[in-house]
Amino acid sequence: MTTTTPPVATGAQDTSGGSTAAARVRKRLSTHTATMVAIVIAVVWTIPTFGLFISSLRPEAQIKTTGWWNFFRDPEFTLQNYQDVLFGQSASSGQLASYFINSLVITLPSVLFPLAFAAMAAYALAWINFRGRDWVYIAIFALQIVPLQMALVPLLSFFSRGVSLGGVTLMPAWNLDGAQNFAQVWFAHTCFALPFAVYLLHNFISQLPKDLMEAARVDGATHPKIFRTIVLPLVAPALAAFGIFQFLWVWNDLLVGLIFAGGSEVTAPLTVRLAELAGTRGNEWQRLTAGAFVSIVVPLIVFLSLQRYFVRGLLAGSVKG
Amino acid sequence: MNFDFAEQSPKLMMLLWGLVAFAVVVGGLLVLLDAVPSYFARRREAQFAAATASGAPLPGRSKPREGMFATFFLLPTVLLLMIGLVVPAIRTTLLSFMDGGSQNWVGLDNYRWMFAEDSIVRVLVNTLVWVTLVPLVATSIGLIYAVLVDKARLEVVAKSLIFMPMAISFVGASIIWKFVYAYRGEDQEQIGLLNQIVVSLGGEPRQWLLDSPLNTLLLIVIMVWIQAGFAMVVLSAAIKAIPADIVEAARLDGVTPWQMFWQITLPSIRPALIVVVVTISIATLKVFDIVRTSTNGNYDTSVIANEMYNQAFRYGQNGQGSALAVFLFILVIPIVIFQIRNLRQQRREG
Question: Could you say which residues from 79 to 138 on chain B have a Cβ atom under 8 Å away from some Cβ of chain A?
Fold first, then answer.
């Protein structure tokens, strides 16, 4: 795969290599040292994951007694660890298949809700003229800096006791049990995601051509119509960017899951279970290695296949400011 | 295989409900907004017709309609932010002046406790170490790597390798590194990479995560490992955006590569550099998962976010937990002010 670099491409890169400052720095700093440093960094960044992956495929007895690098001298391969950690019945085995489904159930609505709400809000803040628009935007923007730790204790009590202001009930207590607790997690994730989502999507939506919007208005299109037929298709890449962000964030989240999903296999996500296994069974490496990989594989696939959108969103969200 | 899919059906039903709720709320809102204006449009047409017939001045385009659209488009977001973030944040601030059971006002006691209790001072110091080291090291490594692989062969692959940890959860990353730090007695074969390296260099294996203050540094390595990819991607894009003619001019002036880096590259990417450092600093302040998964805050490794969780959700000390949350918020503010001032300066220059 890597050995078939076409010679033409290499030549083109060499001639253009001198055109950026960085490339010039790299070239003059004896290329050998530069390459070595880059390779060392790349190796340090990859080896730990690689080692864990190799270990997850080794039999339990071997994982616990010899280093994973012995795998290459004495390759013994098994999928037993995955079988155990996903479907095993004993309490210590992990039962990750169930938590895996929880993670899925938590993640999908937690991505969709903020995506839709934020897109609508961002459109209103960018293209509908109303008084106080800038202030609303600044307020939402500023909420990005509130750490979610600030919201945890009261939000949890809102769910259990409801919200009332001066005797008027604004939101009744939720009184959920079993699988219904997912709703709590969706709600929390949606709230916490909105400030960044509005900010990111506003960056894209406000930059759509003004002429286009005005032309649509002159043609008599209403805001909902413009939003649905013009804005949404045009900012699809931005929606994808936020979708990936939020997906990775929710799938990988521990804190919100820990507090709002409870610890049982009925609702808790993978991360909560894995953190628990790491704490209570820290030496059961056959389970931890396979378990970690079960949790890593989905975001990794999403990430690698949609990396382009992710990077675009990252740059829009952080640099444009 | 002992996996019962029937047991999972309530969850999948719940997911279905969630998706139906989504369709109803979002779809309903849009349909409603479509239907209401066409009612208004009909009424306006009628007014228009009446006005033309009687020769009265034509009714102007009604402003409140814009306001109504804005209200409905913003309603879900504003409502959720109020219930989920604004009101809770205010309540947390109030709770931080109350006792553990949120019954009595205790003034500044919780804040005094934070700075008087040795274990909490330790937590604050640890957080300080985190927030100093992680942005510095992660940004440096990201920058060095971005410069080194810029325009190199296989640049995309090389970047993906560093970037990949961003897709891995903090919990997963902690397990990955816990395995690197794993310890076996001296008489046994090592299974952790770090101890194996130490042993093969003639040293003695150590229980890395138990030794303070080294263990905090080893946890910081995990955060650096995750964040360097972010720094690298943003800085790499900034480097590629440096105008070629500036570089060319500098080259004609005969600057050395070092001068090129310090005088051209670095000043050109300064705005991106600041954004990266600020973003990583804020993420680091809130770090929770790594500490909880690796050591659960034991052996002097706890940080503010972790201690906040313990106080509020394990020991039932809502007051002290809230005070820690407020303190975390206060720590974020100067960083954000710094960034806003920089952005303003940039706008003035640009």
Answer: 80-81, 83-89, 91-93, 95
Same domain for A23 and A111, yes or no, is: no
Q: Does A132 lie in the same domain as A11?
A: no
What's the domain count of chain A? 2
Is residue B10 within 8 A of residue A179, CB to CB? The reply is: yes
pLDDT per residue over A242-277, tens digit each?
998 899 999 999 999 999 987 777 889 999 999 988
- A89 belongs to a structural domain: no
Nearest CB partner across the interface for B34, out of A225, A285, A311: A225
**Same-domain check for residues A239 and A165:** yes
Closest partner residue to B88 (CB to CB) among A117, A154, A278 is A154
Separation between Cα atoms, residue A92 and residue A19, nearest integer Å:
58
Residue A21 shares a structural domain with residue A138: no
Q: Which residues of B touch A246 (CB under 8 A)?
A: none
Whether A2 is covered by a domain: the verdict is no
Tell me phi and psi for residue B254, to 5 degrees: 75, 35
Enclosing domain of residue A166: 96-318
Whether residues A247 and A307 fall in one domain: yes
Domain-embedded: residue A87 = no
Pick from A180, A250, A103: nearest CA to B21:
A180
- At A80, list the tokens: 């037993």
Q: Is A113 on the interface with B (CB under 8 A)?
A: yes
Residue type for position A77: F
Predicted TM-score of the model (pTM): 0.86
What's the CA gap between A242 and A111, in Å, rounded? 9
- Identity of the residue in B190, B230, B289 whose CB atom sits nearest the CB atom of A254: B289
Chain B CB contacts of A163 below 8 Å: 83, 87
Which CATH code for domain B111-170+211-349? 1.10.3720.10
| Spatial CA neighbour of A48 closest among A303, A289, A275, A276 | A289
pLDDT in tens, chain B (350 residues): 456 667 778 888 888 888 998 999 888 888 887 777 667 777 777 777 777 776 655 555 545 577 888 888 999 999 999 989 999 999 999 999 998 888 889 889 999 999 998 999 999 999 999 999 999 999 999 999 998 888 777 888 888 889 889 889 999 999 999 999 988 888 888 888 998 999 889 888 888 888 888 999 999 999 999 999 999 989 998 898 888 888 888 888 888 878 888 888 899 898 889 889 988 998 999 899 999 999 888 888 999 999 999 999 989 899 999 999 999 999 988 888 888 888 788 777 75
In contact, A118 and A201? CB cutoff 8 Å: yes
What's the CATH code of the domain at A161?
1.10.3720.10
The two structure tokens encoding residue B86: 């604004």
* Both tokens assigned to A299: 């975001």
